[in-house]
Each structure stands twice: as structure tokens, then as C-alpha cells.
Predict the structure.
Amino acid sequence: MHPSLSIDPGNPLVRGFFDTWKVPTLRTVTGWADDKRMLPSKGAAEPGKYRSARTPYMREPMDCMSVQSEVQQVCIMAGAQLGKSESLNNLVGYVIDEAPGPMLLVQPTVDNAKRYSKQRIGPMILETPSLAAKVVANKSREGGNTMLEKEFPGGILILGGANSAAGLRSMPIRFLLADEISNWPDDVDGEGDPLKLAEARTNTFGRKRKVMKTSTPGVKDICRIEREMLKTDWRRYFVPCPHCGHMHTLDWKNFIIPKGEDGKSLTEQAHMVCPDCGGVIEERHKTDMLNGGEWRATRPEKASRTRRGYQISGLYSPIGWKSWAEVALEWVEAQGDPKALQAFVNNVLAETWEEAFSVRLDAEGLAARAEAYDHFTAPAGVLVVTCGVDVQINRIEIQHVGWGVDEEAWVLGYTIVFGDPTNFDTWSQVWDAIRMPIKHASGVELRAVATAVDSGDGNTTNEVYAFTRQHRKEHVFAVKGMAGPKPVISAPSKQDINIRGQKIEKGAILYTVGVDSIKSTVYGRLKRTEKDGPGTVHFPLGMTTEYYKQLTAEKQVTTMLRGFPKRKWTKKDSDNNEALDTFNYSYAALHYWISRHNPRTFWKQMASRLEKLKTARVESKPAVSVPEPVAATPDPAQHAAPSAVPARRPESKLSGWKR
Ligand SMILES: [Zn+2]
């Protein structure tokens, strides 16, 4: 072959020839931003030229949105102060300047969108010369530039709120930027999911579409961004250890907040350790680590050419933004405040918040915590006793709970009265059980100050009203459980019409009880590992396996409601849950009692009341209308139920917990 016919790409002449014929390649989003983007002097932490090197982890997700990338769907679950918003702004600038087309940017609300336009988009356009030249100045409305609409040659930017369907229903869209999607409503104006509405706008563009969804996360199993992330390969940013080079993610479990000799947290000395060599990693190492980092898929089985997900926490925030010392301080200050802890987990760690009670409780674990005190005796911490009653078709179950300062609780005893709830005799046994004397450690005899009785499913409601009406003076009242976010106990209503529609004099009083709220509280407390203190629940030895099984019978599960996950308390149909119900009614009765006192000084009042009782020795006279139960202390060996049988009712049986 003649040498002149061969094409040698290494030949400088040949290379020059091919260069002139090369199709000019478009810049990537990062390339555009590094070249053209100016950060506004107002509002930006570091005004001046944008440098992607400052937040190297943002390069890959941004460049997925470049038109030459195959990726169509990008999901970013990120904490605060990581430069996520500036990346979004870069996309807007890139589209206007480099790849014009119709673009929709959606914020949770229209107000958010207006503010975003005014504080972020407007200043960026103004201070980035190439953008200012393309988007007509704000003043000339007729020039196609308003707060929520910005025209530019070859395209338009529309800003919308997820709370208004009108803004999401516009024209076909090639670039969709969905921001803070975890704060979007499930339904917009009755037209369904706003994210679906917005995404439907991109269908016309097929493979050319570019959709970016970003958010800080919210509650586990509920929040949108997690749902979207689960469809992706879930990339995380791996950085090299400055000591051994081991590639790892900056995880909270490797974050160390040293403690001083006085036990105080030394947040200024917060640092990380390498999970491989154990070397101390300091804030000053961060810049090199970020530069040496790379995104790696943690769910490779979900790998896709068109869809990617990125999760990054505030621990990666570049030097000069959020420091590890600030993170440590935020953590320390959030202790004991569930709301602040959730904000920390969501906004700093960029992780979903898992409510403590969403994990099923372990019955055996609770049983193992039982303490050595007799049934129907109250340890010294108990200041007041309440009772919860649940009515079943062939029996009535009663639980006594003692309460101490800040709702520390002691289960005192459990009684099951077998019998027909429509039979008066059954109820007089129930009354005996409720009035069971409780021997306090101080020697005083206590009785339940308030009793909440479930008004049942309708079959026995009349009997419950009759019973509670009869014992109203002793603070026995009917309750009805309500699901959803309700207070522990709501203002009562008078039920003065009986089932047959007849008017009843001095009608029964029915309180509404927020069962879901109580379950959340009680389950949160049952999960505590502290041996005592506010909220701790104590159990006496000898409660049956069935008791613990029932107490832990329910679980919060996530169910789909109209296409959206909702949290709901459920149990297996075969499982009984009376132990939980009666405990919860006891708790409602406590709150009833608190509401009849000054809540701020309630526990002081209860303590001084106990002191007075010590002097008087007897708490209250038994009601005249009923026989007094034998005040014998039950045999501790027969824990499960009071062995005391009403003296004048030898035929009645107070059955044990056995079935
Ligand atoms: Zn290392």
C-alpha cells in the first residue's frame, strides 16, 4: 500500500484535518458551570466564579443531566449545605445557555417557587453574563419574563408549586427539576400525585427527557425521595482514607465525639475514624478525600443505563461550610428531643427517620425485665393508681397500673372476670376487681382513682354506659378509641340516649381516646432500655407469657392508601391485644386524672396526697353500694390474678389469666 494512502491519526497534519471536521461537542453541565457560572454576590456563601472542585461529588449527578448522557432519571437524596441547590441552578443555567428547551422547576408550593425564582434564579441570571444576555430583563413583562416564567431563545423555564395542578399541567417538558419532593403533597387539587402529573409532561420527549428529583429525606417507608431512590442503584460517595487509602463512605457509626473527664462532649474535637486502619481522620483531610472520591453503586442489581440515584450526608460538607464540630454540636443539642433528632437524621445524615415504635417489640425481652414485686402491691415510686377495662363477648379484662413522677409506670395486676357482659352480676364482679386494694410500699392502701372502660363494639355499649353511670362519682367513665392523630383524651360528650332511643337521666359520659397516639407513646416507652426514670414501664414477676404476647401484639405497618403509603397499627387477626388495650385505657385514665388537676404541679400534688394518706392510713371508703372486697394480699405464688374473692359472693369467680 502506498504510504500516502494510509491515514496516520498520530500525524500532526492528519490530526489537524480531522479536528476541523469534528462535530463541536457540547459542554457538560459541570463544564458549562465552571466556564460561565457566576455565584451571586447576594445570598451565596462564596460569591464569584462557580468552582465544581468545591463540591466534586456534585459533578457526576449534574453531568447525568447533560444532553450527551444516556441517563434520563437522576435522584439525589442529600443533606443540607452540600451545594445541592447550586447544582440545580447550574442545570437551569446550562439549559438556558447550552441546551435550550422547555424546562419545569417544581417546588413544594407556589410560594416556595416564587421565593426560589426571586432569591436564586433571578440573581443567577443577572450575574451570569451569558444568561443575562438571553433572558430579557425582569421589568419588561411583555418580554416573556415573569416570576414564574422565563423565556429564552429556544426554550422557556416554568416554575411551579406541587400544591397547584394548574402549574404542572402546562406544555410538554424536556427538563423536569423536582425539588424537595419529600415535602410534596400526595394529591394536588384532586388530580392525583403532582409528581406523576409533572413527569407525564416529559413523555413526548422520550429518551431525550431529563428528570431530576431531589430532597432531604423524611420518615422511613413514607417519604417520596426514599421511594424514588429504591428504584435506583443507590450510589454513595466513597472517599480514600488519608492514612491507608481504603475507600469508604463517611458513616455516622465512624463519627467520634470525644468526652472530657467531666463527661461533657468535646464537640470541637469531633472527628472520624477509618473503618479499615482505625486512623483518625480530621476535618483538614476532607478536601483531599472529596477530590479523591468516587460514586459507587450500593445496589448494583438495580443498575440501569437511564436511571441513577445518589445519597450524600452532611458529613461530606466541604471545609468552610458545615464542619464536623457543628455536626457534633447539633447532635448533642438534639438529645432527648425527638423532633430535633429527626431533623438531624433527615437534614444532616440524609437518612430516613425510623420511628422507634415501628419495630415490633419483643415479648420475651419485656418478660425478662420483670421485677420482684408482688401483684397488687405498689413499689415506693407509685404515687397514683388507675385502671383500664376492656369488654369482650364472654369476659371483661381489667388492668391496674401505678404511676410515678413523669409517668414512670408499674403494672400492678391483671384480672379477668369471665361472664356475660349483659349480666348485672358480671359487672358487680368487675367493680370488685376495680376496687381491689393496692398495698403501697409505705404501708398505705391505694385504690384506682380513675377507671376507663371501653364502650365496646355496640353489643354491650348500653351495659358499659349503665355501669359507668352508676360509678361516675368514683371516676369510672366510658371511652371510645379513635384512630389517627388524636389527643390522649378529648373533651367528653354526654350519651343520654340509650340504644332503644330513650332518654336517660344523668346520662353516661363518653370520652374519646386517641388510641394511635397512646400506642405510639406506650410502644416508644416499652422500647426503652433504662431501668427506671420518666416513662419506664415496670412489670412484676409472674405476668403470663400471654400477657406479654398481647402487649406486643400490634405493630405499625405501612399500607398503601390511594397509591400512597400510610402508617397504620395492626395485629394478626388471631392475636388478642386486651393487655395492650387495658394498659392504654389505664393511661387514658391517668390523663383524665391529670386534666382534673393542675398539670404543671400534678406529680407534686400526687406526692403530697400520698403523704396525707400515710397519716390517715386509709385512702377512701369503699362505695356503699357494693360489697367490699376482702382486703387480703393475693398470694404472690398465684400472681396472675387476685385470689381475693368478694366475701358475700362466693359463687363469683375472679378467674386467673389462664385460659
Ligand atoms: Zn485507613
